[in-house]
Amino acid sequence: MHIHILGICGTFMGGIAALAKSLGYQVTGSDANVYPPMSTQLEQLGITLTTGFDASQLEPAPDLVIIGNALSRGNPAVEAVLEQQLPYTSGAEWLSRHVLQQRWVLAVAGTHGKTSCSSMLTWVLQQAGLAPGFLIGGVAPQLGVSAQLGQSPFFVIEADEYDTAFFDKRSKFVHYRPRTLVINNLEYDHADIFPDLAAIQRQFHHLVRTVPASGLILTPAHVPAIEDALAQGCWSERQAYDASAKLADTDWQSRCIKADGSVFEVILQGQVQGQVQWQLLGQHNVDNAMMAIAAARHVGVPVTVAIEALCLFQAPKRRLELLTDSAGICLYDDFAHHPTAIQTTLAGLRAKVGQQRIVAVLEARSNTMKQGVHQASLPAALNEADKVYIFQSQGVGDGMEHVAGVLGDKARVFADLSALKAELLQQTEAGDHLLLMSNGGFGGLQQQLLQALQQKEADYV
User: Fold this and answer.
1) What is the DSSP letter of 327?
2) Which residue of 64, 156, 289, 349 is surrounded by the most CB atoms within 10 Å?
3) Whether 174 contacts 180, CB under 8 Å
4) pLDDT at residue 397 is higher than 70
5) Residues in Cβ contact with 141 at an 8 Å cutoff, skipping those fewer than 6 apart
């Protein structure tokens, strides 16, 4: 059977391609821009890639076309699929029908932390010998790939609330039907498709409806947005997690031994189970780890085994990833783009570096930022940094100037990437921590700064 995937180079669709190939299908695909690392991963699997969406790529006609949610009516390939009446589906629907049937699905949902938490959970299950399948929106170094069929009934999936396809406006995660569901957090995001928080809560309610009575829903304790969503109906066992270790009515608690989150205790029903000592930083990663431990316990992994596994865990790419420590400057790359994620990332780094200077560089490119939704909360989120540079990408308007104005003299806005790069290289100095935050490629700024700093250090020698 020949499957052709439109929009194949996104992490989710690339994962679908890898799973389809593993099942023995002939897989081809196309995208607007075919580029590494996903293009490399797909080509290594023997998947033929086409740049662009010309209708000729559908000749001869494939048996099935899987259409990514970035494509819409008016796209030449989409129009050809409809005109020729070719069989088509979405990635989430194909996954549900051909991979997740009869599997024990462990889904990780929420506004933030999905990739990190699902990577941790997959790693824990692997270390416990359960050989799970998985599909994750990133690549943890120890997993090596973003998707794998696995050799057991268990399948871990990053459960995204974004819509499924141009013909299916439900959130992708309603297709997954988990038995173990993690809801890490719930905030307003994706302003391009959701008018308000209530619309997102409604989709989470639809997800909760698919969890069987014998399943488990894991949430943080007393989060109003989550409680409101669950109040619409919940038919499964619930367990709650409290990061403060002060609430007596929670099943799970954590207690940081080090302020930066690099060492913390795991507490279950009032009893300390052990300590995680690892390379990751920040309360948000402690929270992700606790959810992973609790989810793994639901499929039979002892808490002590999960703790031992997480002590060896390495973060996925672009999660406060240290790219280099050259010329005395630490350069980090992070995916943070929502104010809460920005704030928690900066807090974790601050706890690690103390009074050393943090230079935060944010690419304001998400659809939600372009609509001005986060302008009021961004200044507080960025306040932990000593210097703030905001790259105002096309279509953002003047909202970032307002953010910089609130932050005062320590903040500047740039519209030209080369000028921003020159400013960063001129103003940063030995001892600084330079943190780049973007949910996109940032125009290659990460690699440009990496090369420049390494050359600067070489010139010193």
Assistant:
1) T
2) 156
3) no
4) no
5) 314, 316, 317
Q: How far is CA 150 from CA 19, 250, 277, 349, in A?
A: 10, 33, 28, 35
Strand order in the sheet with 321-326: 321-326, 329-334, 433-437, 358-364, 387-392, 411-414
DSSP secondary structure, 342-361, as one string: HHHHHHHHHHHHTTS-EEEE
The count of other CB atoms within 10 Å of the CB of residue 447 is: 13
Cβ–Cβ under 8 Å, residues 158 and 114:
yes
The pTM score is 0.83
Statement: residue 28 has pLDDT above 90:
yes
Does a cis peptide bond (omega within 30 degrees of 0) precede residue 37?
yes
Q: Which domains does the chain have, with CATH numbers?
A: 2-90 (3.40.50.720), 100-310 (3.40.1190.10), 321-460 (3.90.190.20)
What's the whole-number mean pLDDT along residues 223-240? 95
Name the 3-class secondary structure at 116.
Answer: helix
What band does 358 get if pLDDT is binned at 50, 70 and 90? very high
* Residue that the structure tokens 């001892």 belong to: 431
- Tens of pLDDT, residue by residue over 298-351, are 999 999 999 999 999 987 777 778 888 888 898 989 887 778 888 888 988 898
Amino acid in the structure at residue 231: A
Strands (DSSP E) along 234-386, which ranges?
A: 237-242, 252-256, 263-268, 271-277, 321-326, 329-334, 358-364
- Check whether 113 is labelled as a binding-site residue: yes
Average pLDDT score over the chain: 90
Average pLDDT value for residue range 141-168: 93
Any known ligand binding at 205? no
Residue 415 φ then ψ, to 5°: -110, -10
SS3 content of the chain, % helix, strand, coil (to 5): 35, 25, 40
- CB atoms inside a 10 Å sphere around CB 445: 20
Phi, psi of 246 (to 5 degrees): -120, -15
Q: Beta strands of 356-426 (E only): which ranges?
A: 358-364, 387-392, 411-414
Higher-confidence position of 111 and 94: 94
Task: Kindly provide the residue ranges of all beta strands, DSSP E only, lying in 353-419, ordered along the sequence.
Answer: 358-364, 387-392, 411-414
CB 5 within 8 A of CB 13: yes
Model confidence at 185: pLDDT above 70: yes
**According to the annotation, is 115 in a ligand binding site?**
yes
| 246 is an annotated ligand-binding site residue | no
**Would the annotation count 111 as a binding residue?**
yes
Which amino acid is present at 82?
A: L
Is residue 340 part of an annotated ligand binding site?
A: no
